[in-house]
Write a structure and sequence with these properties.
This protein is of the alpha+beta class. Helix content is 25%, strand content 22%.
Length: 236
């Protein structure tokens, strides 16, 4: 019941925001790296129970395995048995496996590849037909997420869509994207690949102060599963 109430509150807040009229769109952040605008680097994703992983050994391919993180957070592998995976990044897990297999192998070079995510979510709100949370299983772009939300409303401002992304330190990173350019083919890079816990907001009117919006609406209304930590001083 509490979760449902939180989701309803978020919808109300997003729709109320869409009705506001402001004067000026903010300058897009200038410090975004290509990784922040494209596929997330491995270190930004935390493994969870239910994730499906490919464990690949560069010099010992006979040990390659595809495993699923168990409910207790562990994976079962040859030679080293149970290994804690949940709570680690793919790179951290690869380093752990390298250390454990060093006893058995002379060249224990390991790669961990996340094949499917479990229980990951993104949120689509604002001027879409059916705003709400949706499962993130495999790659999903902004346009694909909006399509799952039954598409844009006629009132949507496609040139000024916001993607709110969780940084490594759990603070929000706001990325403006021009979906009009993606639809026209002028700039397909505007159709970002979403990361777990991304929030896609489609405004009706221009948002003048992104920082204030994030503080007021994301910090207070995003469902707890999205796990943002807001430092109020950041937005003063």
């Amino acid at each position: 019941m509490i979760r449902c109430f939180g989701t309803v509150a978020l919808l109300v807040a997003l729709l109320a925001l869409g009705a506001c009229s402001v004067a000026e769109y903010p300058t897009p952040p200038q410090n975004l790296t290509p990784d922040q605008r494209e596929h997330p680097p491995d270190w930004e994703y935390i493994l969870q129970a239910g994730d499906e992983l490919d464990i690949k050994f560069y010099y010992s391919p006979e040990l390659n395995e595809r495993v699923t993180v168990r409910p207790d957070g562990r994976i079962s592998l040859q030679l080293v048995r149970d290994v804690q995976a949940a709570g680690l990044t793919p790179i951290q897990l690869a380093n752990t496996l390298r250390e454990k297999y060093a006893v058995q192998l002379s060249e224990p070079e390991v790669a961990v590849i996340v094949r499917t995510f479990s229980a990951q979510r993104v949120y689509v709100g604002g001027e879409v037909e059916r705003p709400g949370e949706m499962a993130l299983v495999g790659p999903l772009t902004v346009l694909q997420a909006v399509s799952r939300a039954s598409g844009f409303k006629d009132s949507a401002r496609l040139a000024e869509v916001l993607v709110i992304r969780r940084n490594v330190d759990r603070t929000p990173l706001v990325i403006p994207v021009n979906i009009e350019d993606a639809i026209s083919g002028e700039d397909l890079n505007q159709d970002l690949t979403l990361m777990p816990y991304d929030v896609v907001f489609v405004p009706r009117s221009v948002i003048a102060n992104v920082n204030k919006w994030v503080k007021q609406y994301v910090a207070n209304n995003i469902p707890f599963s999205f796990g943002f930590r807001i430092d109020v001083d950041t937005f003063r």
